[in-house]
């Protein structure tokens, strides 16, 4: 299984912005994600479920862990707050993609 052990934080924020665009239908103008420092401690976690419709086991593995961002711009902070409500990434309809963001 090919899995990323690290996340490109700028791409992560841009994905949240694209999800906002899909939900609201409002385009977000291009912006630069700005921060001073980014730390991550991530690992892969595998989840299996059985699909009665497909009569097969399905893998829903993903990345778990912590990320710390220092000096993040205000626009990106608001997108992270949105992601706490909507989730991030694939399989959010199955309850995956949850994040918890807090200011320190």
Distance N terminus to C terminus? 35 Å
Number of domains: 1
Mean pLDDT: 87
Task: Tell me the series of helices and strands, N- to C-terminal.
Answer: HEEEEH
Biggest sheet architecture: 2 strands, antiparallel
What oligomeric state do the depicted chains represent?
single chain
- Helix fraction, binned, reads 25-40%
Number of helices: 2
Write a compact overview of the structure shown.
By secondary structure, this protein is an alpha+beta fold.
Word description of this protein:
The protein has a two-stranded antiparallel ribbon with strand order 1-4. The model has no long low-confidence stretch (mean pLDDT about 85). The chain has helices spanning about 10-25, 75-85, and strands at about 35-45, 50, 55-60, 60-70. The chain is α+β, with helices and mostly antiparallel strands and about 100 residues long. It contains 2 helices and 4 strands. Helix 1 (about 10-25) packs across helix 2 (about 75-85). The protein has a single domain, classed as 2-Layer Sandwich (Alpha-Beta Plaits). Helix content is about 30%, strand content about 25%.
Features:
104 residues, alpha+beta, Alpha-Beta Plaits, globular
List the helices and strands and how they pair.
Layout: H1 9-24, E1 37-45, E2 48-51, E3 56-59, E4 62-70, H2 74-86
Antiparallel strand pairs: 1-4, 2-3
Helix pairs in contact: 1-2
């Amino acid at each position: 299984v090919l899995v990323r052990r690290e996340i490109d934080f700028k791409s992560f924020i841009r994905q949240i912005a694209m999800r906002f665009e899909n939900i609201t239908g409002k385009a977000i103008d291009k912006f630069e994600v700005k921060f001073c420092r980014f730390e991550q401690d991530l690992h892969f976690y595998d989840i299996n479920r059985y699909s009665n419709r497909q009569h097969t086991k399905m893998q829903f593995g993903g990345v778990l862990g912590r990320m710390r961002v220092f000096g993040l711009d205000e626009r990106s902070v608001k997108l992270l707050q949105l992601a706490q409500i909507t989730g991030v990434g694939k399989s959010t309809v199955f309850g995956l993609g949850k994040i918890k963001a807090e200011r320190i």
